[in-house]
Amino acid sequence: MVVRRWSSLMMLLLVCLSAGWLHADDEDEPKSKKKAAPEKAVPIVAEIKLSGSFEDSSSSEGFSLFGGMSSGTLMNLCDRMKQAKTDANVKALFLRFEGLKVSWGKANEIQAAIKDFRKSGKKVHAYLEGDGIMDYFVACVCDEIVVPPVGGIDLTGIHMEMPFMKDLLDRFGLKYDAVPMGDFKAAAENMTRSSMSPANRKQWEDILDDWFAILVETIAAHRPGLTPDKVRELIDHAPFTSRTALEHRLVDRVDYAESILPRIKAALKQDDLVLKSQYGKKKSDEMDLDNPFALLKLLAPKKEPKLSTNPKIAVIYANGAIVTGKGSFGLMGEEMGSTTMVENIRKAVEEPTVKAIVLRVDSPGGSALASDLIWQELKKCQKPVIASMGDVAGSGGYYICMSANKIYAEPGTITGSIGVIGGKIVLGDALKKFGVNLESVQRGKRSGMQSMARGFNDEERQAIIALMGEIYDGFLDKALEGRRKAGKSMSREELKKHAGGRIWSGRTAKAIGLIDEVGTLNDAIADAKKMAGLTDSDDVELFILPKGQSFLDKLMDSSSTELFTHSFLKEAVQQVPALRRPLQLLDAMMRHRQEKVWLIMP
Q: What is the reported pTM?
């Protein structure tokens, strides 16, 4: 494996040499760099582009081998708006929407950052080239919405599709032998049923009811003259052209992006205003491939900065499917390794300047064992722990939050899914269709229980159910313990009504007591400061974990074959987004077949 990875690295370097990126002759590189003269302070309109996904984790920052520069992190985006708020040279904010790929949790975070900027008294101008519902949902909290003449608003509501592949698997003799515990534990339904179960349909209808209410209420609260009833009526008559969107007061103007700066100048009576594109984006985020030394800089390992003596709040990002061992990148993205998470929690605990921990979770769950190892490490922590849920914190994602002193979620966060599922992929019949016959030799009555050649027999199924029952009971016990620690009074019977694998939105989860507060990551950080006894006058810093990997680290963590395969499949899923979750589950279960019991949301 090491030889193959070094071979991949050498091949990449050879390609770079042949492309002229690296040169042995460095005469063109200046031996000493002159300090640039300080820029003259001029009044500016800060432009920030909102496109693609903004990941929670710092490990998602930087250059991607196949995708160029990433959009950056959500925290970095919000920090850029905060910088613009306090920058005396910034007179207005220009947000250029070009196709946001975020869900309801991150959308709420971005809206909160825009609202915070508006407290400065400066205006926020939104220009929508992307007509997606998330672009409009976020933009509606701005002072002005502008759309181009040949554009529109695709405010058609919320639609969800879920692929069911049992009939397809049957054609190839494939089977997923699932053992769910809980009526709503539908994580494997995509592979075990031809259609949605009534319980699963019920929980998703409830989630969509909450999301739809959030959408309607937000638009009605921020668009002049629109009531919730009127917004619902408009949604049923969407999509709208730019002209009709203006007639219905969904937007303020129909014009091109070039019109925004002159209008701001006229409104503020400042002719010397200039547009500052990519405001607040660090130069280190931009890589110039024309520079022969750019790749060398890319390959250099990241330096650990020396910590100051100021008090700190550790923000630990818990992203992706939960697996045992080291965190890595799976078929559909980042994975959260229990070993990596435990190391980062201990790092925060052992750092004397860290006074509290905020666990930022964006995960659909995963291995029951890995989830429990992370939960136990957080439980041992003697410092205050606040959990902040992003887009998703279901099943194992909820499990790791249970030992926190307090749990925050966004209004649209998918959370809960307190339940257990077990199962395995059965390949035997499929292989027979291609002339492959699997034979086995075993010692021990149940030694072949995890074999992919056949499904569970009755005795093995009962053994799995018994194992799952104990883990499910432990899940309930730990959830009750966590709720009591947070000051919530709840009986076991009350909790069971909200369990059984059922998912909830953040605001419903608060109403039934599964979380404590509806709020953003910044709200959770502010609460962590209070719990740590820190005041507004204290110079508090954030200690971000895990540290972002360098390009070389990422290359060494994956074989070249894996990198190309992941890139190809991610591109394919862009065309069929509904396949993402089932493929993610299938990938995790195939690569971690030693795990018998999973805590995964539907």
A: 0.82
